[in-house]
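re the bet — no i am not wrong, look at it urself. input seq straight from the record:
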Amino acid sequence: MVQIIPFAAWRPAAAEAATFACPPYDVLSRAEAAKLAPTHRFLTVIRPEAELPASVTEDAEQAHQLARTTLDKFKSSGVLIQDPAPQLYAYRQEGFAHVQTGVVACVRVADYRSGVIKQHERTLVAKELNRIHHFEATNAQTEPVFLMYRRRQQIDLLVQQAIAATPPHYDFISDDGVHHQLWPLGENISAALVEAFTAVETLYIADGHHRSASAVKVAGERGLAADDPRASIMAVIFPASDLKVLAYNRVVADLAGHTPEEFLAALAPHFDVEPAAAGAAQPQQRGHFGVFVGGRWYRARYTRPLSGDVIADLDTSILTNAVLQPILGIHDLRTDKRISFVGGAAGIEKLEREAGDTGVAFSLFPTSVADVMAVSDAAAIMPPKSTWFEPKLASGLFIHSFA
């Protein structure tokens, strides 16, 4: 049984939302964040190092203290205003050829610990510590976790009725063309949704594993009781069938001493490989891969029988086990500097640029939402960078502050 918690969010005025909100902290480079910060001001809170000298690292105390100072200024100057009472919010995004509508709420740390909130990724200690330090400095959860659940009709009806009854409080289009809308839901609808969510058995983390894990650890360090509203994680919770996963593609900087011809020949035991135009090489089903090497594209179809194992049969696992490890010598996808990852929204041109003349790029068929839930239900861990959800949640539209 899922228990969601209304909260009194700190939010920007409606007229300022479009120039205040920003992409999540982990989708921009430091240089990109610095360039975007003047027109997307919340970046100065979630990526404060972008305003500091290059010698100041992302996890430096100076950076986290600047985040706190900036957040406090936004509050004291009235740029951010706290809602007078706890409530839930409806958040709708339209982009990347679909619409997703979720409920903004806090979820219980206790549900994470008990497995009601399930994971599919392994976290990195350094990234967890960064989010813990950011949380401790700002005394706030500044960005939501992206959760999903198996659709429930009663929740749909309540949300649809609420957003049909009143215009959205926020209504703007972000730089990537995504249409964002937000509705505060008030006490009565919020109470009805809290009750409706008790019929949901499981929540699944789509994105935000490090934010979730850090919130859990902070609650533990502070000794918060299980029923303390502060022992919670700010989230947007979507029906899984609303969501769209794009491919998370791979680029390896070199061919581990092989020529392009030798590399393609090494694929033969596991794949049927044939030259193809760039568009035709892009995979249209599981087990198919696009390969860019030696300045041209190839279509590669996996020919070995599947094992029936939920992890081993993922395309990201097949590529790792049949190509990246044995042929290219990539044994740790998290730490090997020769491999990089490109979200599917970037397009094949970026894959071609990053592979260049000496490397190789792989385009993959997207992992499905059903795969994510199956892996989570099996208490298993996906290979790194297996999913790229779009649209990304905007940051800065709601903040869960403990101050």
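see?? Residues 61-76 form the longest helix (16 residues). told u. also The mean pLDDT is 95. so pay up
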